[in-house]
Specification:
184 residues, Alpha-Beta Plaits, alpha+beta, 2 domains, four-stranded antiparallel beta sheet, 4 helices, single chain, 14% strand
Length: 184
């Protein structure tokens, strides 16, 4: 098999799994963002608990101290259970082989097959700012992967609009990805 035939096979294999891998990586990214958000809520609840305990102790309101402490600890326990669930989901995805080595291998396969994966940040001067995905004429062989907006991972559809600061993942054939980058 010639080099070009191998290249074609590698690219075709990559394209065949592109949709599957993109959704798996998107799911992993979303879970990690959710994990961080829950951890932030736990940290906030711990800080609030400390403030409440201190204030009620100083004011010598023992009964209210017991009640508020119990309620805050239950809230923290619930959040910790949510966090454990997210961590279990992440672990399950990682055990299925979704990791940075696979992503690097995928990126290498794309490059060998004249493909490319890029991330671009939407700026105020972007031609796509405020437009819906369905309103944008993307080159034929480009896919929009995920959009990271603030602390949220978005799996875009035709109704998804682009906002300043959005981190957009583009993947596809190298030439078409570069054309798409110019749009963004």
């Amino acid at each position: 098999m010639s080099f070009w035939d191998k290249l074609k096979v590698a690219f075709n294999d990559s394209v065949d799994t592109l949709s599957e891998k993109t959704s798996e990586w998107s799911a992993l990214a979303k879970l990690r963002w959710e994990q961080r958000a829950i951890q932030g809520k736990i940290d906030k609840a711990n800080n609030e608990l400390g403030g409440v305990v201190y204030q009620l102790f100083v004011e010598k309101q023992q009964e209210q101290l017991k009640l508020d402490t119990k309620n805050n600890i239950e809230k923290i326990s619930t959040l910790k259970a949510e966090l454990a669930d997210k961590e279990a989901e992440i672990k399950e995805l990682l055990e299925r082989g979704i990791d940075n080595a696979e992503l690097k291998g995928f990126k290498k396969d794309l490059e060998l097959g004249d493909g490319k994966i890029e991330q671009v940040v939407i700026e105020e001067s972007s031609d796509v700012l405020g437009k819906k995905l369905m309103e944008i004429s993307l080159p034929e062989k480009v896919l929009i992967g995920v959009i990271v907006r603030d602390e949220q991972v978005i799996i875009p559809d035709g109704q998804t609009s682009f906002l300043v600061g959005d981190k957009v993942t583009l993947l596809g054939e190298k030439e078409d990805v570069e054309k798409a980058l110019a749009l963004f």
